[in-house]
Backbone:
């Protein structure tokens, strides 16, 4: 199964390279439209994966807790987990504060920042499925 799946992945990669080469070399007028269509398909695929991850993680956690056994064992694991989380968060925040005070990022910025009400002049894109 693994070998067959690997073959499918390698074939798909080769087809992607061939398609990209064909579009780039022989279809210069349609590059932008084709790239937008392919990007939309890729974006939909990634959003579908993100939609699957949260329920999968939740189901795994619920299944693990259900097979845990006694409540005291669950409480000990919860306490250890919270201890690690709080201590790791504290250490990372402390390290960030120390590094900011030592390095002072942005202290030598030569320019001035624009006013909040000032327009940037950047084009604002219209609502699309891609930007939602």
Residues:
């Amino acid at each position: 199964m693994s070998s067959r799946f690997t073959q499918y992945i390698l074939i798909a990669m080769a087809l992607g390279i061939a398609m990209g080469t064909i579009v780039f070399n022989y279809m210069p007028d349609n590059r932008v439209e084709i790239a937008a269509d392919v990007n939309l398909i890729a974006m939909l695929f990634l959003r579908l994966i993100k939609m699957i991850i949260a329920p999968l993680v939740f189901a795994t956690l619920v299944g693990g807790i259900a097979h845990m056994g006694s409540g005291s064992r669950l409480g000990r694991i919860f306490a250890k987990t919270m201890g690690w989380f709080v201590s790791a968060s504290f250490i990372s925040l402390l390290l960030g504060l120390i590094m900011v005070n030592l390095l002072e990022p942005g202290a030598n910025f030569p320019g001035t920042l624009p006013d909040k009400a000032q327009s940037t002049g950047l084009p604002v894109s219209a609502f699309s499925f891609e930007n939602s």
About this structure: The CA atoms of residues 88 and 123 lie 41 Å apart. The chain has two domains: 1-67, 70-98. The mean pLDDT is 86. The radius of gyration is 25 Å.
